[in-house]
Amino acid sequence: MQLDVMYHRIKQNWSYAYDEKTLHIRLRTKKNDADTVVLHCGDKYGWEHTNSSVPMLKWATDNLFDYWEAAIQPRYRRTVYYFEIRDKDEVVYMLEKGFLEEAPPVIYEGLFDFPFLNPIDVMTPPAWVKDAVFYQIFPERFANGDPTNDPEGVLPWGGTPSPTNYFGGDLQGVLDHLDYISELGVNAIYFNPLFQATTNHKYDTQDYFKVDAHFGTNEKLKELVDACHKRGIRVVMDAVFNHSGHTFPPFLDVVKNGPESQYADWFYIREWPLEVKDGIPTYDTFGFEPIMPKLNTANPEVREYLLKIARYWIEEIGIDGWRLDVANEVDHHFWREFRKAVKSVNPEAYILGEIMHDSMSWLQGDQFDAVMNYPFTNALLDFFAHARIDATEFSYAIQRQLASYPRQVNETSFNLLGSHDTTRLLTLCKGNKDRLKIAYLFELTFVGAPCIYYGDEIGMDGEHDPHNRKCMEWDVKKQDQSLLTFFQTMIKLRHEHEALRTGSIRFLPQSNPQLLVYERESANERFLIAINNSDAAAVYSLNADYKWVDALTGDNMESGNGRFSLPAFGYSITKVKM
């Protein structure tokens, strides 16, 4: 066996508390390098009375590694442990201090040590997120419900979008279409920024305590949030705390008074005066955007100002969480204080960071509940939209991602297939709605909180910004009603079955490289889902030891030889008949 690739360390995603009683212990080995792994564990103060041997499950695999996991409940909430790793006639024992050829004779020295399961340290994302299906709304383009607050020069609804034009979308427009949102089946809304700003996207905040006048008022937002809550819909708002806008009063004061401004240390000024040289501002910004100066969150005044904002909208308006823009460029110290401030007001508020890479540093219970799961997004696009990888490679990418985080993080990850920042999925699928459907099928039958970008459910397309921000199509004749029905059906199915939300997942390899087959299983339910990601028919089999039914129709799945055919880009969702 190849010892140099075996990996484990305490905490993070390798040994962590899943709840106040349960520890999850994981080990990584080279792919197909071990037949069995046993976790030997016990109390460090009484090993001889508490030790046990727990077989570990090979629960995930990718192109390089196998990932093993065991769940234990130490009697005294602490444990020391080591691994017994076997392959045919070879055995090795892995301790924190290294490898042994025989079981360690001295159990108190050199073992891995989970010192104590302190309940306050348990990563506990809001429980409601595990059952959420999100709907992302770009406010300026969803619906114009109140023409009296339209911007000057507003264009007729449905015209060609540009980075600077307006169509009058507002909060009243969302209120007017809550029936549509409810009938779709979603139970959470994520709004792009609503604060007063100068652009149509509102990521250049002018006033953090005021809803943009083109969208309505703070009172109108309160009305909308209350209406959503009556329907069982949570509301998450976008927070832009990495940077402000160039019309933010403290920044205007710095522009006016230079180094003498009382707000000079609210920003990162590299050189005076404030100007743009060869396209680069003399102050730090988001990217190199001069209208988005970066805030200095190490400044106590800035911190207190932003934390007041974080509390205000939860206390006064009743929102259910924050999506944090450019979250990875803000210091960890601030996010720790941010979490304390938000959770002190509403312990069940969802804190979601926008991070596009490995995010373990932010997901240890002291900062975010979850991040936008872009590695998941990219894997789905590579398989379903671009056909760059086959089903096996896709399954490896998904399992690698699952192994990167604790289970409770995966259960509340924000899974998306597109947003205001990306080309629309239908366009990436080159107009093939069947491809779009099977991509969303996987998202809606996978662990985590799925998100639908407004309009995907009726067949809207669009290249990258600004065309991915088209006006929502409200003419029923121009909506794909069949596609809408598909979304409603799949969301309803997800809501009805716990296994499709938080159950285990197991991929079943197939000889057809474009045939994706996987199981979702909970204590009382078992599903098998087959997806044909090709333009030719495909065949899959069902385990003959079970009686299967079509999960969508309730019909028995019967075949003489246990083999079933899927049409091009077809799918099947079957359930064990209990």
TrEMBL record:
Domain Glycosyl hydrolase family 13 catalytic: start-end pairs: 136-494
Molecular function GO labels: hydrolase activity, hydrolyzing O-glycosyl compounds
InterPro entries cross-referenced by the UniProt entry: GH (IPR017853), GH13_cat_dom (IPR006047), Glyco_hydro_13_lg-like_dom (IPR004185), Glyco_hydro_b (IPR013780), Ig-like_fold (IPR013783), Malt_amylase-like_C (IPR032091), O16G_dom_2 (IPR045857)
Keywords from the named record: Glycosidase, Hydrolase
SUPFAM superfamilies, sorted: (Trans)glycosidases, Glycosyl hydrolase domain
One GO process term, biological-process aspect: carbohydrate metabolic process
Pfam families recorded: Alpha-amylase (PF00128), Alpha-amylase_N (PF02903), Malt_amylase_C (PF16657)
Family from the record: Belongs to the glycosyl hydrolase 13 family.
Protein name as catalogued: Alpha-glycosidase
Source organism of this protein record: Paenibacillus herberti
